[in-house]
């Protein structure tokens, strides 16, 4: 508890940084800011009904925690996963660092961002106080062509927030993608500038989604991150958190789009 109080105090000054649950899945009025530690998961008891815990585990994996205690791991892989089994794990196909051959058997819901039988994956799942859905996108094939529907942008709707994880995005978004996404409040963004999207194109994606808060992921050290940030600063203010776990709320979101860098890579 003392540790949690220290974390809250350390970031409270930064947290003066705000969303409604989506409508029916057929035509979603989709998608309904920030305190934060990498050393410990956000305590379930510490979350109010209007708060969501978000921890950067590493690479493209985040742990999302809801007020009712649902734990979700994004791009859960054999090499990067949270220290406790989540209730839900989402995965993407492009590289083995984004999916698991051996997910923990304690995970209740394993959601693949691709359809092994072909065609787009489709997920629209409600687990207690969170709705999880996906928007299918394409990836580059190993031969340099296009593998259709190999990636999903997963959207997590809880506590009046819409959090979107771009996964291993390989192309800019068309109007139909943006319509399916709806309003996004918090966007988790791969910023490597090569394995996923080139930085110029990623800037187009960020501007088109226009989320209140954008959090970089999928970078391999300071040089990769700084290359992205040098371009991002032309469009958005950039701030740094000293902890890898933050608490999000609608009321605390930035008034205009902002990038927040969490420690790790």
From TrEMBL:
One of its GO terms (molecular function) is hydrolase activity. The keyword Signal applies. Pfam families: Lactamase_B_3. The keyword DNA repair does not apply. InterPro entries: RibonucZ/Hydroxyglut_hydro. Keywords: Hydrolase, Signal. Coiled coil: none annotated. This is MBL fold metallo-hydrolase.
């Amino acid at each position: 508890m003392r540790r949690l109080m220290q974390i809250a105090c350390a970031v409270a000054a930064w947290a003066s940084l705000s969303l409604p649950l989506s409508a029916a899945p057929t035509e979603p009025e989709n998608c309904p800011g920030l305190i934060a530690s990498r050393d410990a998961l956000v305590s379930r008891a510490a979350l109010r009904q209007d708060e969501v815990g978000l921890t950067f585990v590493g690479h493209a994996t985040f742990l999302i925690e809801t007020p009712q205690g649902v734990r979700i791991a994004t791009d859960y892989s054999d090499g990067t996963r949270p220290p406790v089994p989540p209730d839900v794990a989402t995965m993407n196909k492009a590289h083995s660092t984004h999916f698991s051959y051996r997910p923990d058997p304690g995970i209740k819901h394993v959601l693949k961002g691709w359809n092994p039988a072909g065609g787009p994956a489709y997920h629209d799942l409600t687990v207690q106080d969170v709705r999880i859905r996906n928007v299918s996108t394409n990836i580059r094939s190993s031969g340099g062509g296009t593998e259709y529907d190999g990636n999903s942008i997963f959207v997590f709707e809880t506590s009046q927030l819409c959090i979107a994880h771009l996964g291993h995005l390989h192309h800019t978004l068309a109007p139909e993608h943006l319509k399916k996404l709806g309003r996004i409040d918090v966007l988790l963004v791969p910023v490597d500038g090569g394995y996923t999207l080139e930085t110029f194109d990623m800037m187009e994606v960020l501007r088109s989604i226009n989320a209140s808060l954008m959090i970089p992921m999928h970078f391999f050290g300071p040089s990769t991150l700084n290359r992205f940030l040098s371009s991002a600063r032309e469009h958005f203010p950039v701030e740094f958190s000293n902890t890898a776990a933050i608490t999000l709320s609608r009321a605390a979101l930035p008034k205009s789009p902002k990038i927040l860098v969490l420690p790790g890579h």
